[in-house]
Amino acid sequence: MGVEATDDGAPRPSRSMPLIDEFFMYSMRVAAGMTEQQIADMFQTTVATVSRVTITWANYLFCILGTTPLWVSRDKIRSVMPEKFKEHCPNVRVILDCTEIAVAAASSLTLQSEMSSHDKERTTLKALVGVTPHGFVSFFSKLYTGSISDKEITELCGILHLLEPGDEVMADKDFVIDDLLSGVGAKLIAPPFKHAAQFTREDTEKTQAIARLRTVVERVISRIKSNHIWDSPVPLSLMGTVSQIWYNCCVMANFQGPLSCEE
Description:
This protein is of the alpha/beta class. The protein contains 10 helices and 8 strands.
């Protein structure tokens, strides 16, 4: 590989591949989920080159997409609120859910323990995702070790600082975050935490309505994880870049357009 000069005269390695091909290589790794070896064979290059290009483009896109504003104002959310939300939960600001991605097991037993999921027998990283009622990704946390609870991640990730008094937050009943939300003047909208025999007719109708509306966040997370790099455990070689890749996938999900509550 040769050397070329930058505008300030400093040397830098010359590129042997057009930028569009590098981006295509990154997309094949992240979106298509192809292995580094498969991509290397296709481009007739080395695995090291594929790894370098993937990491470089993950960081570059992270810098570009990191300037994209995500948190949506209350007035804007109300102006595009789907009718079914207006009927049942007109003050919902964000719908929350957590998701996990599998990662290759670390050699450190301590790290393995921290990254072990509570409900899945595997090593994972975990993130909180928040979407608006019309399916826009308005918040997502960084990746935490898989052993963290939903409440802990809600408390640590910074979303509480974005909420305003009067906001309503929709989540599953496993999110025991009433006290955290009340501390910022917000309210939790979740299915009643009762046994089936204790449900009134009103409880049943409310539970069914929340369950239907809450699927918006599940469908958005499915969009994010439709990037096939998440289909198999993330290799240790990408652990330094996995947060940037996660960030890019979350932001790019918004370019797929809004979700319909009728779907």
